[in-house]
């Protein structure tokens, strides 16, 4: 199991990407089908899968155009390739508990789509309750550090060469002029920092009223002591957070973690902005306290789990690729 969890890890230390793991599962499915033989051998197959998350009325769906991409070279109709892959999926995933409730279907005759099962999503979301999974691996200024202080702080371990700089702490090397140009405008930065601060405030309030408890009181960056496992699933095994704003937030969290393995500065800005706006939408649409906390405690805790996931991801985006502070309050 630990070996499986290590597959598809991203820049968030220890956090695994659903897209990467699903691409591995699809490649395994294809390779297993070769034995029968239902599908031909394809060198470097996993790079051909190219999954992307697509909008769906309910749940999370990943889609791949691998069949039309390979059809011409293999001399097999795309529709046949897609059907063969779909037929091989149940047998290939029979001993893979993670994918047991994630069906693969063929749509538009040649696209393969996997609808993620709720148990898989719950396991993925649960990772955010452990701080070691998302903490930046290198030191940064304290979260309350002012943005101006962060931007003007002297770099450590700097090696200079003509027109370039390298900061070993940040593992970043870009032309110096581009680095200065890439700094975020204050209004964009504030929107993202405010979303992170709102998540921190919600988590702190939740601890004060007894909805959650951290190992060290008030240390919202620490590990959750209670509940040790968030109640993501209902008694029937379905995901508890099914409201549209909850589903949008989960989708953007998936997109963010999927992209972190090879993230660029520009895409990090777009991801952080989209995730911040999802946080605002979620905050306005999904109540946590009051009647919900009294009469639907497990729903309130699951929503707090989403807040925690958003806070961890926003903090990583702000502090690592964007290189600005992620303050707990403004």
From TrEMBL:
InterPro entries reported in the protein's UniProt record: DALR_anticod-bd (IPR008909)
GO biological process, one term: arginyl-tRNA aminoacylation
Start and end residues of each DALR anticodon binding domain: 192-330
An example molecular function term from Gene Ontology annotations: ATP binding
Superkingdom in the source lineage: Bacteria
Protein name as catalogued: DALR anticodon binding domain-containing protein
Organism in which the protein naturally occurs: Thermoleptolyngbya sichuanensis A183
